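Researcher: We're teaching a course module on how sequence relates to structure. For the next exercise, students receive a sequence and then see the predicted structure as tokens, so they can try to spot secondary structure elements on their own. Here is the exercise chain.
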Amino acid sequence: MNNIKISDNFNLREFQCKCGCGTVKLHSELLRRLQAIRTETGRAVVINSGYRCPTHNKKVGGASNSQHLHGKAADIVIKGLPITEQRKICEKYFPDGGIGYANTYTHVDTRGSKARWTY
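Model: And here is the predicted structure for the students to work with:
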């Protein structure tokens, strides 16, 4: 399901809810920025978590107002790029959004205001 190419390097299914419901919401600005990261780095950008339906968001302990619920967030890994470099590139493309730093992934979102945190 959702096996539709939506940019040079992404398919819609990469952003669908991981619970198996197949639901997906994706804000165009999030896609634009992630594609820009992919284009600049030349490396795969893996979407660990994109859209989350309310049931799945609750199950994984997501915030009640999570940007994942609106299709404005993704938890990503930039393959083969050291975490320090991943952080720099995310800061470049999400200066006015949320960035959450974890050991194994980075949360990015297009909330419209700067927010930073560590998991």
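Model: If you want an answer key for the exercise: The CA atoms of residues 90 and 108 lie 7 Å apart. DSSP finds three helices and five strands in the chain.
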